Automatic annotation (TrEMBL):
Keyword entries, A-Z: Coiled coil, DNA-binding, Repressor, Transcription, Transcription regulation
GO molecular function, one term: DNA binding
TM ranges: none
Record protein name field: MerR family transcriptional regulator
A Pfam family it matches: MerR_1
Source species of the chain: Bifidobacterium eulemuris
Coiled-coil spans in chain: 101-128
Domain HTH merR-type: 13-83
Organism taxonomic ancestry: Bacteria, Bacillati, Actinomycetota, Actinomycetes, Bifidobacteriales
SUPFAM superfamilies referenced in this protein's UniProt entry, alphabetically: Putative DNA-binding domain
């Protein structure tokens, strides 16, 4: 997209396609996130009415893409971005420093909660991998005609129960 000239600066504007490529989010996801308020309303090109994204918008979209990649919920993303916006306002002197500290603590809580969810997910995956490894050992034993194949299953019944629980 062309650059817009102003008397004080030049702003690089990006089309929705470019924003999608730069952020890793699909065009439909960008529209959806705008519709549900994850991102604020995007500027429009006055001549075409198409969405145009600033460099700051791209930075925010890249953050959203990372939050999406780590499985953060939409509500948590909304809160995270709201907190970040308040902190940025504080850097301009518009917000009380106590509010900044509180928002920073909330950011840590959001990220800690997500890290805990990821740790739980990792534990489930480890159990599932163990199940695959045991079943592979079993089927290798069967393929080799070994008499101890059933013993492999019998010795790992507790693991099978864990797999069923973690679903």
């Amino acid at each position: 997209m062309t650059q817009q000239n102003t008397t004080t600066s030049r702003t690089q504007w990006h089309t929705i396609r470019e924003a999608s490529l730069l952020s890793g989010l699909s065009e439909s996801t960008l529209r959806y996130y705008e519709q549900i308020g994850i991102i604020p309303p995007v500027a429009r090109d006055p001549s075409s009415g198409h969405r145009v994204y600033s460099e700051h918008d791209i930075d925010v979209l890249q953050t959203i893409s990372c939050m999406n990649a780590i499985g953060m919920s939409l509500d948590a993303m909304r809160q995270y971005l709201g907190n970040a916006t308040e902190v940025m306002s504080a850097e301009m002197g518009d917000v009380d420093p106590l509010v900044v500290r509180e928002r920073a603590k909330q950011q840590v809580e959001l990220l800690d909660a997500q890290a805990l969810r990821l740790a739980e997910q990792l534990e489930r995956i480890k159990i599932q991998q163990s199940y695959c490894a045991i079943k592979t050992m079993y089927w290798n034993a069967v393929a080799e005609g070994r008499a101890d194949a059933e013993c492999i299953l019998d010795e790992n019944r507790d693991l099978f129960e864990q797999v069923r629980r973690v679903g």
